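User: Before I run my own analysis I want an independent prediction to cross-check against. Here's the chain; please return only the structure tokens and, at the end, one sentence I can use as a sanity check.
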Amino acid sequence: MDEKEKLAIPFPILVEGKYDKDSILRVARARVYTTDGFGVFKNSEKKALLRALNEKTPILVLTDSDGAGKVIRSHLKGCLPGRLIQLYIPQIPGKEKRKAAPSAEGYLGVEGMADEVLYKILQPYASPDDLPEECSITMADLYNDGFSGSQESSRKRDAAAKTIGLPAGMSANAFLEALRILLSDEDYRAMVGKQQANE
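Assistant: Structure tokens:
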């Protein structure tokens, strides 16, 4: 599907795994995140990141139409503070091409849905406007601004994380992922300026 034909979805979309994400990105221009299956249950950094994101915006949730998908939805409802927009795929018997056998319940997951099905599910949430540009912060920016590469970096990350509602103790990579999701370039520069003024 041509980029111009893809749906522009202004809301973040949360799916179970990377193959689900790939399927969504075939039909939409969107910010798509994964729960890593049940991984989100124990990953405190990812959970904190999703909470901070959900405080700013509703999140579209699209899991498989099986028991595991229901458990993940229920967990997300219990741990995320904002509005979750629940989307559902039809229960279609079959198996994904990359798998040797069908799932335990015998239904196709998000990754096995035809593009036309996913397009129809997401279409009501499309925006006629262009999506905001993605944040361009890089690891080099973190290094230059003291958030990585020095003995003080961990303390600086912790102080900055506190200002945007994230937990202390994040690695530089996790911190970078969080900043790209939660801040614009302008927000990041403002945060760095405030932190430098307070030091």
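Sanity check: The chain has a mean pLDDT of 88.
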